[in-house]
Batch of 4 targets.
Target 1
Amino acid sequence: MRLQKKVFRLVDANLNRAKEGLRVCEDIMRLIVNDKNSTKRLKEIRHRINSILKTSGIDYQKLILCRDSRNDLGKKIKNISKRNKIDDLFLANSQRTKESLRVLEELFSILNNKTAQQFQNLRFKFYELEKDCIKKI
C-alpha cells in the first residue's frame, strides 16, 4: 500500500472518530441535558471539521476509497471499559474527539500546515466547550 493511501486512511479514521465522538456528546447535551446552546456549539464544531477538510485540498472521496474497514486490526480489539454514568459516556467521547483532533493536527502538519493550524484551533475551542458541558451534566 502506498504511503499516501496509508496517510489518507489515517486521516479518514480520525475524521470519523472525531465526528462520532462529537455526535455522542452533542446528543447527550441535546437529549439528556436539554441544553440548546451546548448542542449548537458541538454541532458547529462537528460541521467545522467538514469545512476544514473541504479547504485542505484533500478530496473526501479519495479518503473513503483508501478506507479498509474489512482489514482494520482495531475492529477486533474489544472495548472493555464500562460506562456507569452519563458523564462517563460524555467524557469518553470528548476524549476520543480531542485525541482525534490532535492526530489530524499532526498529520496535516506534513500535508497542509494551514489545515493543521485550523485543527489546532478547533481542538482548543473544544477544550473550552468540554469544560462548559461538564458543568451542566
Note: Residues 3-68+84-136 form one domain.
Target 2
Amino acid sequence: MRSKHREFTESEDQYIREHLSSMPYRDIAKLLGRPERAIDSRCRKLGMRKWVKTPFSPEEDEVIRTAHGRTSVSVAEQLGRAPAVIRLRARRLGIKSWFDITPRRDDCQGYKLRHGIRDGQGKRIGRAPEHRCIMEEHLGRRLVSGEVVHHINCAKRDNRIENLHVCPSMSDHRKIHTGLLDLIPELLENGYIEFDRTQGVYRTCTKNK
C-alpha cells in the first residue's frame, strides 16, 4: 500500500525559495524535519533550477577571478551553479579561500554570524547565527531541530539574551509575528502610531512621545 506523504505548507515552500541558494538540501531537510530526497523533489515541483555539472568555460573562470567584493552565492546565481561548486572551482583556480576574493561575511539576511563554530566533539563546522549560539550558551544545550530564536524587539542584530526567546517550532515563531501585525489596527486607531504617506513608513505619533 502506498504511504501518504505530508504535504508541504506555504511557509515551507517560502523557506525553500529563500534558502536554496545558500543552504544544501540536507540542512534545509533537517530544519524542516523532512527527508533530503523530499526537498529535492519539492524543488523540482516548484520549478527551481537544478544545478547541472558542466565544465567551466574560460569566461566563467574570469568571472570567478574578478569577483572582488562579491559573495559566492551572488556569483553562483549569475553563472547558474551551486555556491559550493563556485568555491570549489575557485580553489582549483589557485584561490586558497573565497575570503581571498571577497571580504569575510559577518552577517546573513541581517543576522550576525559567528565563525569557527565547533560541534560537541570539537570538529569545526563553520559558521552559525550568533543569536542561536548565545541562546545555546544560555540554555547549556544545543537547540533541537525546528527550534527558532525570536528577537523580541524585532531587531535582528540585537542579540542581548534578554531580547531573545526560544520558540518550539517555526509555526510558533510565525504566530508571534502574526500577533504583532494584528496589533497594528489597534495602535493606529488609538493614535500610538501613524502612517507617513510622504515617506511611506509607519511612525510613532509625536503626541504620545
Note: The mean pLDDT is 81.
Target 3
Amino acid sequence: MTNEQIHKLATNAANAAAAACTPTPMMVGTPTTPWGSSIDRTKPTYYVSEGPCGFAWVKMGGNTSYGRWAKKAGLASKAYGGGVSINPSIMSQSAERNAAWARAYAQVLRQYGIECYVDSRLD
C-alpha cells in the first residue's frame, strides 16, 4: 500500500473519530476564592460545549519513509525535539476532539508498521 493510500485511510478514520467524539463540556467563571473551584454565580459564567482548548499531533521519525513522504507532501512539519509531526486536519479548538483525531490517525499508521505516537497539550 502506498503512503498516500495509508494517509487517506488514516485521515478517514481520524475524521470519523473526531466527529464521533463528544467532548466533556465545562463552565468557566470567576472563582469565589483566589484558588477555589467554586464559581461565583453573581459574576458572568460561560458554558463551553467543546471543553478545554488544546492541541494534539502524531509524531514520528523524520527519516522514515512515511515521515519523509508526509513532509514532502506538506502534511507534516519539523517536530520539536526531532522527527516530524502531523496535526489534525479538522478545524477544532477542542483538546478532546483533536486528541481523538490524532489517536485514530496513529492507530492506522501502526497497523501498517509505521512507528508513531500521539502527544497533546492544553492551550
Note: The radius of gyration is 18 Å.
Target 4
Amino acid sequence: MLTPVTRYHGKPRLVDLHRALEAMARHCREHGVARLAMPRIGCGLDLLQWGEVRAALEEAFRGSGVTVTVYSL
C-alpha cells in the first residue's frame, strides 16, 4: 500500500503526478478502457508546468493502447 505524500492542502510534486498517471494507465489497461479525457491536470492552481505534465502523460500511457484527450478549460 502506498503512503500518501500529498495532502489536499499541499501542492503535488511531479513525482506524485507520475505515480498517479502510471496507476491510472494500469487501471485503464486492466479494465479495458480505450479512451480517456481530462483537463490539463496539475497546471492550474497546482502550478505544474504543462510541458512536464504532458511528458509524464505520454510516458505513462505510451504503448497502453489508451487514447488520451486533454482539454484546456
Note: The first helix runs from residue 14 to 30.
